[in-house]
């Protein structure tokens, strides 16, 4: 096995840079750079590093050594904590490059070795990748649960139960036809347990795709007629001037996005072009994009507005769905109380009266939006399916269990056993217990060099 090395901290100037070495030659590399053995495992020691080829002084570094298998990769691992200047890092990496038996690591190479050596399963690897990419508290919490085995533990429990039930079916296949043998009828005996296992996995699948939402983030589209105040609302929600605000109708021609964090989750707020009969091709394209964005959003803020005279409502809630948040902007122009406003076009829908210009009702709107976002967040009590790959594997497992139920109920243990094997293979793909070489290439290419 080749010994690999890479910079594990982000490139650029910093106080400290960490260079990681993994493989059978990690200890020897430290000895060649410092002139001394690595020292006791897991104890930091200060060493002067020199280039073995020239004897040139490279840096003063803290050196850590982790003895196999008690390391991240399961191999001998060394870490060089050097000063974070670019010249220092390049000099140390250059010296390592010239050592025989060492090679620069590819993307995700350290984590791949951890997987291949049984230190992580595939769901934990993906959790680690998500933790590195996490931008919000919700993403961090979900990634930590997965990285520490929440989904793995549940999958291993399902797998153990399925193996035990499969053993009964195999016994029925092998011995069931022998008169008086204990194997007879064992296949049918697992039906209650099989149904319970299928129901348990189906309950996990019925999560409304909440884990995927946390991982990729939510999207909220602000839709309504021109001059309803959509851009002003976007600017208030994100706390900056993300969109141009003008009294002239149709100022927003394209979709304007702003990223923010709500309830610990990443949210993209999309301000769309005003919905009306377009006056030219550019505006028509803006309306088309607005409608497309509204269609794919997780939910919408549907805006109507009161005209300055207070006698007419601009826009409508006619096409609003129960999941939408309906707001009536410029409500400070109303001649009467909001509940008495003529509701032609509002379709009897409940709405929140606001005035973005005067700041009225905005805190209530923000609380309502956050409440809806929280409803889409995953439960802390369940292992979270955070990727389409997880969902497909579990759906295939359920299909195998359903097929096994059907065949075993008809006393066909041969076909029932084959369906159980299909279900087991699907669970194996979830955790990486089966041959998933092509899948691994996809997973690990998303890691940075040094991880």
TrEMBL record:
It holds the Pfam family MnmE_helical. It is found in: Cytoplasm. Binds 1 potassium ion per subunit. One of its GO terms (cellular component) is cytoplasm. Its cofactor is K(+). Mg(2+) binds at residues 231, 252. GO terms for biological process: tRNA methylation; tRNA wobble uridine modification. SUPFAM superfamilies: P-loop containing nucleoside triphosphate hydrolases (SSF52540), TrmE connector domain (SSF116878). (6S)-5-formyl-5,6,7,8-tetrahydrofolate binds at residues 20, 79, 119, 451. Residues 217-374 form the TrmE-type G domain. Keywords: Cytoplasm, GTP-binding, Hydrolase, Magnesium, Metal-binding, Nucleotide-binding, Potassium, tRNA processing. GTP binds at residues 227-232, 246-252, 271-274. It is an enzyme of class 3 (hydrolase). GO terms for molecular function: GTP binding; GTPase activity; metal ion binding. InterPro entries: G_TrmE, GTP-bd, GTP-bd_TrmE_N, GTPase_MnmE, MnmE_dom2, MnmE_helical, P-loop_NTPase, Small_GTP-bd. Its main location: cytoplasm. Its EC number is 3.6.-.-. Exhibits a very high intrinsic GTPase hydrolysis rate. Involved in the addition of a carboxymethylaminomethyl (cmnm) group at the wobble position (U34) of certain tRNAs, forming tRNA-cmnm(5)s(2)U34. Homodimer. Heterotetramer of two MnmE and two MnmG subunits. This is tRNA modification GTPase MnmE.
